[in-house]
Amino acid sequence: MTATTQDASGGPMVDVGDLTVRFHTARGEAVAVNHVSFSVQPGEVLGLIGESGCGKSVTLRALMKLLPPARTTIMGGVQVDGRNVLAMSERELGDYRGGTTAMIFQDPALALDPVYTIGQQIGEAVQRHTGCRKAQARDRAQALLEQVKVPSARSRLDNYPHEMSGGMRQRSMIALALSCNPKLLLADEPTTALDATVQIQVLLIIRELQKRLGMSTVFVTHDLGVAAEICDRIAVMYAGRIVETGTVGDVLQSPQHPYTQALLASTIHGSMRGTRIEGIPGAPPDLTRLPAGCAFRDRCSRAVARCAQDVPPLAAVKGLGKAACWLLSQDGPSAQSAALA
Amino acid sequence: MSSTVVTAPDFIVDVAGLRKQFKVRPERFGAKPKVVHAVSDISFKLAPGATLGIVGESGCGKSTVARLLMGLIEADDGDVRMAGLQLSQQPDQLKAMRSKVQMVFQDSYASLNPRMSIEASIMFGPVVHGVPRDEARHTAHDLLARVGLEPARFAGRYPHEVSGGQRQRVNIARALALKPEIVIFDEAVSALDKSVEIQVLNLLQDLKAEFKLTYLFISHDLNVVQYISDQVLVMYLGKIVEIGPVQDVYERPAHPYTRALLASMPSMDPWRRTQAPPIVGDPPSPIDPPSGCRFRTRCQFTAQACAASEPLLQAADASSSIDHRAACHMLAATAGTWQPLIADGTEGAA
């Protein structure tokens, strides 16, 4: 079976429209995701970027309907491969999770079952979704481990997760995720817990397999360098909203939103030695008590009166992507770039 | 005791031949216990006011070095002198040492007592060391203000009532409460978001200048280490593979492992993506490390000499400073093969 791109529909693989996720907490309703809309084309890698608590992982979990129903209110639409995920029954979700869509997590030690071998876990997924025999599933599991460059894959099938190193475990989880040829891969900080030399190996494996299998991918990360390595497009989130979106080149090279600019400026890299960077003052707002208007305004050095009143819409910036900032509608992108330089 | 006070005006930290092995419980009864070679023969010196960055991957022993220096675990062998005192496990000597050397850990929540207010946590050290409570409280409030936490708002709060960045500031204030000369940071900013990380790093640099501190800064983040350090020490499986001034090590890395580490950093430039991983495989287990050079199993330059004997630290290359040293048998063969990182700024110079 050649799992190349697209079915006949021709539409986007993922279409999220006006998604809002609220958690009921002891301190009140926390708005974790706030009117978020985006789409992912077949074969495209979208990066969700932001700091902790910005809603990037919650958005990803909503795409798989993994949020606890008793404590969550979800509004809006999540369409994956033309189907409404939020309306799926448990039985449909069983086919959908791991079949159409697969997910890899930050911590493979928690995501893998400690009492089953790697071969059993991958084999189980293959049997569940293809209905093949145990021996075939084991062969498939071996082929998958070879695909993610696990050395001596045959003997590794009989290893338990604790017998493997972190990088090997993460590779095994990628093999598990790819076992049923998903059309959509959801990756939640999959390389964050890995060492630098292993991170780049795993990143290149994901990139190569994503290209080869033509999977759409939503890649959540806080690391802009990782995003530059793998993403086609980026959506920057802040306090539950997408504040800027565009191609990876546009967002990293000509950031428009003051938050994106500040985030890039406070990301340390080689040439910064000996200089002093003034990061972003303050901290993100409390999601249970979101201020009116733009959530970033208290930390923004260029906030104007209007920022406190209305939430800025995500509007197209000429020649670039989209950004949600009142300043951009007033003085245009050129003034912004000049202010940055 | 006169024998413990050593005058070493040039170096505030002098570590010689530090060694630590951990025994692992055998898999079956009666089997010979396995030994983790966590730290094997580490020696370095640090001038007052300098910042030494220690980098390496997980399991390379960098945190064990920090714990050995703090006297939290006992070394098997080696000689540690810091701030004019010799490290020993004698309780009174250890107490004297700890007023000079303090440590900040990665997990800001786990390193504070959840049942003590922030003020009480910061006062705790000085009170143990005999400072009157009123004076300790006064110092605590001063330090809270200094690390950017308004004493009136934060002194009475408990660790769970403040954010991660604020908690790490509390830990920094607590480390400074004893007026130390040396502070060890073990991945102290790794758990923080980027915008908070830079705030804390700036604070550390201000405090260093203000209180004339010497830092040991342990991190896996090469960018952060380059930003904050004067000297860099690269560890691999319990040994130093390269050490030197930060510019030399980052611009002319001599050891193949240092080169691989630097080349593994994501490029930040979507048009210059990494095409092939600089080294393959995971770091081997520090149980039964490879003979000879411990990096030889992942090194592209391996020769027979690498398996036969352990390489010693030697001058890295002619154009670097004399303090730049690397432990590799193949230094002559690999000299000149390093492609400088393509980045804006200083790094393309070589």
Poorly predicted segments of chain A: 1-8, 332-341
Number of strands of chain A: 12
Cα-to-Cα separation, first versus last residue of chain A: 51 Å
Which two chains share the most extensive interface?
A-B, 45 and 52 residues
Quick one: biggest sheet of chain B? 8 strands, mixed
Percent range for β-strand residues of chain B:
15-25%
Protein structure class of chain B: alpha/beta
Summary, kept brief:
Chain A is of the alpha/beta class and 341 residues long. Chain A has 12 helices and 12 strands.
Can you characterise this structure?
- The complex is a heterodimer of chains A (341) and B (350).
- Chain A is an alpha/beta fold.
- Chain A is built from twelve helices and twelve strands.
- In chain A, the strands form two sheets. In chain A, strands 6-7-8-3-9-10-12-11 form an eight-stranded mixed sheet, with helices on both faces.
- In chain A, strand 7, helix 8 and strand 8 form a beta-alpha-beta unit.
- In chain A, 50% of the residues are buried.
- The N terminus and C terminus of chain A are likely disordered.
- By secondary structure, chain B is an alpha/beta fold.
- In chain B, the strands form two sheets. Chain B has an eight-stranded mixed sheet with strand order 6-7-8-3-9-10-12-11, with helices on both faces. In chain B, strands 2-1-4-5 form a four-stranded antiparallel sheet, covered by helices on one side.
- In chain B, strand 7, helix 7 and strand 8 form a beta-alpha-beta unit.
- In chain B, helix 3 packs across helix 4, helix 3 packs parallel to helix 6 and helix 4 crosses helix 6.
- The longest helix of chain B is centred in the middle third of the chain and has 18 residues.
- Chain B is globular.
